[in-house]
Structure formats: structure tokens, C-alpha cells
DNA sequence: CCACCTCCATACGGTTGCGTATGGTTTTAC
DNA sequence: GTAAAACCATACGCAACCGTATGGAGGTGG
């Protein structure tokens, strides 16, 4: 593995967060995951808290990155479809979102989840408006669409639904009035 | 507080589960919550694991209880509306569902979440069928409706949406083709 | 080649939670 | 009223994890 950077630690922490929640973002277990020891960690970070912050920042940056890429897509309907492909194609994102919402007793986790969710809802709403939907309806459908995304990911995660990812996407599109 | 029963412990454990996840179902913290000590706990339970089992069983029993009550309502549309009133009126249930889904690395938590979710989806689907909807559509709408329920609870929990509970209910009803 | 800086391993003390042991207090049974 | 049962408090050993201290390996400039 060679020498490690702070970002290596942040990535590993984000993985741990997705799998085991905030409690799994623990120094020694993540060190094991990286094949190293605490000695390395406390060189790059002051404490466990700053590792959590780094992991959350990494996750939030991912959302901004995706949105920036989607802004290159001119057609709003295609843009929304592409967004859903990204969303349902990434199994980690919904897990992290879930873990953070569940860990809402942690102020930073709650605030990060709120900010990222709000950003996504705003982007989805704007795209639906651009597709010709009136503002109020666009907002409502964005909330429902993102809610379905989170809820479906949840049900899929525990095996309560068997429907394929593709079915979810078509369903979400039709819920938003964008059915083809 | 007087003397405690095993069910008192299970209830307190369920509260802790809703607020802090599986990790919060810890013997000593729950003892503090009850104003007692471990000595009481290990009289009623063999270990921490059995406390978790009791809390999960309590949660699952709640679903069955509600469904049993709803079976008394003859009209399927009214039955669905009553169900949603129960669902959105109980702030604890969705929290627990979320926590268990997040804690899906624990086999018992995952299996319980799966079983309860499947039971609810089945009940909702059957009710929609009884309301005159074709089976496939009824199933799909049940999945979407329950998914929205979970997702909305999540977004509401972190403050990403401000819409009132009542709005959620009307929205869910209209999504299921039961709008008045 | 050597002084220094970067990065990591190991050892230590402190905290929190699990599970056991043991004794004490309150209720119940007769 | 007393013996047994039910219930609870305290103290202990054990394990996981946090954060610190300290020293050592490996590259780099002079």
C-alpha cells in the first residue's frame, strides 16, 4: 500500500460510513481496513472528529460534481433521466444518505444530510420547471421523486422488494410526469 | 418507577433504538434511561442480544396490531386513509424502520425490517386491489406509496422538507390513485 | 555521511460497555 | 412472622476504542 495521504483515509472512512454508519468511522478499524495503524492516522488528522468531517465533505463534493456534470446536458428531460441513471447506478450514495439520516443525533451528520438533500431537491425542482412544469408541482414532484429514491433504496437494501433498478427508474420518471 | 418488567425494558430499548440506532440499545445506557442499573437487566434478560430481540419483536407486533385493527374497516379507501393517519401520526415507526434498514449488517435487524416491510406492502397492495385497482398497478403503487413514506420521513427528519404531515398524506393518497 | 523531515509502529492510560458474582432489599407464601 | 422467591445495587474482570508519547525507518539536502 505504500504511504498514505489524508484523502486515502477519507475515502476509507466514507466506505466504512456507508457500510456501518457513523460508529464504524473509528480510527483503529479504518486503520485495519487500510492495512496500517493509528500511528499513521494521527499524523494526518488531529482526531476522529476531523476524519468524520473529511468523509462527509467527500460525500458532499460528490453531489456537487454530479450536478456540475449534469448542467452540461441541455435537454431537461434527458438531464433528469441521466440523473436517475447516476443515482440508481451508484449503490453507495443512498447508503450514505441513509446512514447520515439515521445518525441525525449527530449535528454535523444531520446538517450535511439536510444541505445535500436540499441541494438535490432544488436541482430536481429546477429541472422539472425547465421541462415546463409549474413551480409548485415541480417542487412537489421533486420531493416525491427523491423520497421514492430514498425509500426504494431502503426497501431494496433489506430485500423487501425484488423489482429491478430499471423498473424503479421508469416508475420515478412517470411519477414526475416525464414518462416516455 | 418501582419494579420493572421485561416489557418495560423492551419498550425503553425500542425508544433507544428509534433515537440512536442499534448501537444505542446498550444495557447500561438503557438502564440509566429507566433509572435503574444492570442488576435489574440481567435478572430479566440473558444478555444484550435478547434485549434487541425483544425490542424488534415489540416493533413487529405493533404492525400486526395496526393491521388487525384496520381489517375492521370495511371500505378500502377509508381503510387506506386510516392507515396513513396511523402511519404519519406515529413519529417513532419510521425512525425505527430507518434505523433497522441502516443496521442491515445485523442479520436479525435486516430480516425483521424485510418481514415487516413485506407485510405492509402486501396489506397495502391488497387494499388497493380491493379498491378496484388491477393487481400489478396495486403492487406498484403500494411500493411507491410506502417508499414515499420512508423517504419523506427521512427528509423530514433532517429538515430537508418543511411540508406538513397533512400534505404528505394527501400527496400519498393521490399517488395511489385515491385522491378525493 | 549526516542532520533533518516525513511518515508510521508500538506501548501506555483512560473511558465505555458487556457479562458475572455476590449480597442486599422487598414481596409473596404459608 | 418467617422462609423462600423475586428483584435490584455494587464491584469486578474483560474487550474495544480514543488520544498521547516515543522511537524508528526511509528518503532528502547540504
Walk me through the structure:
The structure is a homodimer of 180-residue chains. Chain A is mainly α and 180 residues long. Chain A folds into two domains: 1-55, Orthogonal Bundle (Arc Repressor Mutant, subunit A); 73-180, no CATH class. In chain A, 76% of the residues lie in helices and 0% in strands. Chain A contains nine helices and no strands. Chain A has helices at 6-20, 27-34, 38-44, 48-70, 76-89, 91-102, 107-130, 135-157, 165-175. In chain A, helix 1 (6-20) packs across helix 4, helix 1 (6-20) packs across helix 6 and helix 8 packs antiparallel against helix 9 (165-175). Chain A is elongated and about 55 Å long. The termini of chain A are far apart. The A-B interface holds A 19-21, 23, 97-105, 110, 113-114, 117-118, 121, 140, 143-144, 146-152, 154-155, 157-161, 163, 171, 175 and B 19-21, 23, 97-105, 110, 113-114, 117-118, 121, 140, 143-144, 146-152, 154-155, 157-161, 163, 171, 175. The structure holds a DNA duplex (30 and 30 nucleotides).
Amino acid at each position: 500500500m505504500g504511504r498514505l495521504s489524508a484523502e486515502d483515509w477519507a475515502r476509507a472512512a466514507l466506505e466504512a460510513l456507508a457500510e456501518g454508519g457513523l460508529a464504524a468511522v473509528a480510527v483503529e478499524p479504518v486503520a485495519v481496513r487500510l492495512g496500517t495503524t493509528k500511528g499513521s492516522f494521527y499524523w494526518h488528522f488531529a482526531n476522529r472528529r476531523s476524519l468524520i468531517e473529511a468523509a462527509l465533505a467527500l460525500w458532499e463534493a460528490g453531489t456537487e460534481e454530479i450536478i456540475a456534470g449534469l448542467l452540461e446536458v441541455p435537454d431537461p428531460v434527458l438531464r433528469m433521466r441521466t440523473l436517475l441513471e447516476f443515482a440508481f447506478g451508484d449503490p453507495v450514495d443512498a447508503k450514505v444518505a441513509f446512514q447520515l439520516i439515521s445518525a441525525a443525533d449527530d449535528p454535523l451528520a444531520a446538517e450535511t444530510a439536510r444541505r445535500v438533500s436540499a441541494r438535490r431537491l432544488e436541482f430536481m425542482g429546477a429541472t422539472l420547471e425547465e421541462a415546463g412544469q409549474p413551480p409548485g408541482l415541480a417542487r412537489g414532484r421533486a420531493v416525491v421523486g427523491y423520497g421514492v429514491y430514498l425509500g426504494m433504496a431502503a426497501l431494496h437494501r433489506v430485500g423487501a422488494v425484488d423489482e429491478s433498478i430499471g423498473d424503479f427508474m421508469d416508475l420515478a420518471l412517470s411519477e414526475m410526469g416525464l414518462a416516455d
